[in-house]
Design brief:
Helix content is about 60%, strand content about 0%. By secondary structure, the protein is mainly alpha-helical. This is J domain-containing protein.
């Protein structure tokens, strides 16, 4: 895994997409969700986390911790 933000989520490879989204939402600062101007950036971040998780599942990676 090359994405350090995804690694900081600390999710197992068996986690669902919904669990990835919940962890990604919690990883952001609470004030970030209140700023309307950051909406596109938040959506981009969530998609990036889902892509990294899908790639990890496709590769059959095991947890690194």
């Amino acid at each position: 895994m090359t994405d350090p933000a995804y690694q900081r989520l600390g999710l197992p490879a068996t986690a669902s997409s919904f669990a990835v989204l919940r962890a990604a939402v919690r990883a952001l600062h609470p004030d970030t969700g209140a700023v309307r101007g950051f909406r596109a950036a938040r959506k981009r971040f969530y998609r990036q986390m889902l892509r990294a998780h899908a790639a990890r599942q496709a590769a059959g990676d095991t947890p690194t911790d």
